[in-house]
């Protein structure tokens, strides 16, 4: 089950029911079952603190993914900085799309996709685009 939590932040325009259905579908399309998955929206400072504490990276980031998956069941926590997503959205494709892209990116990490090597980044972007298109077409049907 996917649950969404807001840690002292607002996420404008988030249709949580449709969002949960879409991410569940992404997991199924990747050949996995959906276990317990939490999307926790936080501010920049909280996520930066977590980045320092858990990853020893002293910088802002848009998402940190904690993977608790076992066997074929995807479980974990996605901590998403709505501040960072909003700032990145100014340079990208708008807040709504950037939010979806960051969340599906985290789910794809849980499904085993990496993004450290050039080849991995190409695959990750392709998957993100594929599932973004699926979300848009589902919203308009």
Element layout with pairings:
Elements: E1 2-6, H1 16-29, E2 33-42, H2 44-55, E3 63-67, E4 73-81, H3 82-91, H4 95-110, H5 118-140
Protein model, in words:
The structure is a single chain. This protein has 141 residues and is an alpha/beta fold. The chain has one domain: Metalloproteases ("zincins"), catalytic domain (Collagenase (Catalytic Domain), 3-Layer(aba) Sandwich), CATH 3.40.390. It is built from five helices and four strands. The protein has helices at 16-29, 44-55, 82-91, 95-110, 118-140, and strands at 2-6, 33-42, 63-67, 73-81. Strand 3 (63-67) and strand 4 form a beta hairpin. The model is unreliable at 137-141 (pLDDT under 50).
């Amino acid at each position: 089950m996917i649950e969404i939590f807001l840690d002292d932040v607002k996420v404008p325009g988030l249709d949580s029911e449709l969002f949960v259905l879409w991410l569940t579908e992404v997991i199924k399309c990747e050949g996995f079952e959906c276990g317990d998955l939490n999307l926790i929206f936080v501010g920049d400072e909280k996520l930066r603190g977590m980045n320092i504490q858990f990853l020893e990276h002293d910088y802002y980031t848009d998402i940190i993914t904690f993977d608790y998956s076992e066997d074929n069941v995807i479980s974990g926590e996605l901590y998403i900085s709505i501040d960072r997503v909003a700032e990145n959205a100014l340079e990208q494709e708008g807040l709504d799309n950037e939010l979806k892209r960051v969340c599906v990116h985290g789910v794809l990490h849980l499904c085993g996709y990496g993004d450290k090597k050039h080849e991995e980044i190409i695959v990750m972007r392709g998957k993100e685009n594929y599932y973004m298109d699926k979300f848009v077409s589902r919203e308009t049907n």
